[in-house]
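Sequence in, structure out. Go.
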Amino acid sequence: MSNTLFRLAVGGAFPDRSSAKIARALKVNQRTVQKWLSDEADVPPGVVTETNRLSQLMDEREVMQHLRDIVEDWKESDGHPEALASALARIYFEVTGREIE
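Output:
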């Protein structure tokens, strides 16, 4: 059951479902996350709780909707996708200190 709850929470907290990003956020090995996602290993309750907290935060702050609104406004303004993607990559770096993989 906890693996199912974890996978549901991952969808909300990490929309791209990147095991590398999930692993960094949860401070575990990437292979561990992959095992959790594939039901090869049980997800600890604390991990489910933290992932669910992040998912709820994303939902409460309407992060995906705000980003979609920005993208839609950009498209309507005839902005070039690469310019917006470059800005998003810069924000990613500011948030994580890492280049987008």
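Check: Residues 74 and 84 are 8 Å apart (CA to CA). The radius of gyration is 16 Å.
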